[in-house]
User: Fold this.
Amino acid sequence: MDTPSDCRINGGLRGSQRSDRRAGSGLVAAVCLAAAVAGCAAQGRTGGPSSGAGVSAAPAGADGRSQKQQGGPPSEAGAAADRGGPRPPAVPLALPGLARAEEESSGEAVARQEAAVRAGLETAHRWGLEQLPPRAPQRPLVKPELRPAQGVKLQEGLPPVVYRVPTDEKIVFLTVDDGAEKDPDFSRMADELGVPLSTFVADYLARSDYGYFRGLAAQGDAVNNHTINHRNLKVLDYATQRDEICRQQDQLEQQIGARPRLFRPPYGEYNDDTLRAAASCGIEAVPLWNEEAFPDRVEYRYDDQRLHPGDIILTHFRGTDLWKGTMPDLLRKVVNEVTAQGFTLARLDDYL
Assistant:
């Protein structure tokens, strides 16, 4: 038997209950609107999208009532949520494994740095210095452009003659000539203090122990050309000058393993034949100097008696037979003088 539809069962009631149905429909609509408004308000407080899962009731206690119904004090987190504020972050009881490892690594790095500082001070004190000299700057990616100026002499087709490297950096360059004194303490001191050197070696003085200069080259110090016999080139003819320069190029390439790019004429004496001969042997620049250093003093070219950015300092491989001090005394004097004037020593070959 067919079940009568709601319409047929309720057909007789339509007329009498129509107004009640309209009232009921209005009540349902009002309830739905209120719920929707509440959902939008919750979304505004949380800043996230609203969903059925995002609307939660107050937590219930053991008797099924919420904490508010039980009358217990709300927690700080719960109060913040009720006020619409952010919940406080959870604090872990212990750092996770990775964070713990990073914390330990950071501590180890600090300890290593402190140990390095202590070791540096010990090294400086061992060589009679109050502190380590400032570290040499990194090698420049581009060498300074040499233009006609004070400290730079240029002639077309000839190697430049340089007394001062054009730079605004507070750097100067220590260069050591000849090669008669081969003091192992000097090379060890320069290495331990991190002092960069550029040397200019004459064969007749160096040939007794080229191993000493190979050691300097191995620790990063450049070994450059200072002729075979250390003669005054200015009074020699072109062919003799070329022989003095080119033979020492060959000798240093054989003994040290590299053909020099820099050449310094003995006594600083040269002429155009000197520069032409040097260029024919592969020389790219001829550095001279503005200061000369000794174990007990530094002599300056200019009246202000001060270092200038890019200055080249000359000294020599000499011992107590000619000097009032040793080569470590000399290096100590140079480092103290340079540091006191706020300069740092750099390697000349990196800038020319």
About this structure: The first helix runs from residue 6 to 9. The first strand starts at residue 152 and ends at 153.
